[in-house]
Amino acid sequence: MAFQIEQDVTETESGWSVGHFCTTRLKISRKMLVSIKHHGDILRNGQHVNVGESVHSGDRIHVRFPEEQPAQDMHATSGELDILFEDEWLLVVNKPPGMASIPSRLHPERSLSNFVLGYYREQSIPYAIHIVNRLDRDTSGLVVFAKHALAHHQLSKMQQNGLLDRRYVAFIEGTISPQTINLPIGQTDHSFMERMVRADGQQAITHILASESFQAFNRNLSRLTIKLETGRTHQIRVHLAALGHPLVGDTMYKGTPLIARQALHSASATFPHPGTGEVMTFVAPLPDDLSLS
Predict the structure, then answer these.
(1) In sequence order, what are the beta bridge partners of 85?
(2) DSSP code of 50?
(3) By the 8 A CB rule, do 57 and 69 touch?
(4) For residues 37 and 45, what is the distance between their CA atoms, to the nearest angstrom?
(5) Is 136 marked active-site?
(6) What separation in angstroms does the CA of 46 have from each of 12, 60, 61, 64?
(7) 253: helix, coil or strand?
């Protein structure tokens, strides 16, 4: 069954058009509203209603969204997921290192998104894949999936408005002080994957909130707590390398190979729940290979 939502009209909203109620109260985008008109339905007190008609105090508006289908070439892969939270709006998963977030042409079947689609099929969850934050293959930690298009739209707006607070734990060699890094990032001239700080790149802002020094592997390392303001490809990795402190294990950016992958973990996310507005915080525990300090 497709996603459905319903709300009662308040006195303040009495006299609004159905369309205005949907876009303002229910936070449905205009593009999504057009799709609902053609492939879903809007009911007022159980009866079909057009978006130009009026609502009145005490009316119950019920919206049936269009059926969702995953991409035809998207494989559903069976396997265990480390689920941190789930409801009818969200699925929050702890991704292990060594797993891509989304499938690629060369690796179409065993990304995190493939396993989520497999879980949806097993649980008869009738939605497509809406990934909110992607992680590099060798970055571990928290990944948020919106269950349906309305949740994805609202979470995307939160990201644009700075309401989705993502925190990372990173390990570097040497010592660095808390600071904000504001350096543009673009693709290198010699590699499709690799990024670099360059004047013609996209704006990228990284906040180092805390830095704690310690000894490990007979070296002076630091554990950093980082907040992203933007989300460019390899942003944390490129910014730290540009300061002369690449991530431990990040050989692409000349990090010391003390462990088998870059020492970066998506540790937490805080944002208002797209359905209730309640501010929620989700935490992914640090994996064993990053228990360095």
Answers:
(1) 92
(2) -
(3) no
(4) 17
(5) yes
(6) 22, 8, 8, 12
(7) helix
pLDDT recorded at residue 292:
85
Of 105, 107, 104, 166, nearest in space to 132 by CA = 166
Cβ atoms of residues 45 and 166 within 8 Å: no
> CB-based contacts of 161: which residues, under 8 Å, 6+ apart?
none
Question: What count of other Cβ atoms lies within 10 Å of the Cβ of residue 198?
Answer: 15
Of 8, 41, 73, 136, the active-site residue reads 136
Q: pLDDT tens digits, residue range 181-211?
A: 999 999 999 898 999 999 999 999 999 999 9
Which residues have CB under 8 Å from 3's CB, separation 6+?
65, 68, 88, 127, 147, 148, 149, 150
Q: Is the distance from CB of 51 to CB of 22 less than 8 angstroms? A: yes
DSSP string, 78-142: -----EEEE-SSEEEEEEPTT--SS--SS--SSSHHHHHHHHHHHTT-----EESS---TT-EEE
DSSP per residue, 263-282: -EEEEEEEEE-TTT--EEEE
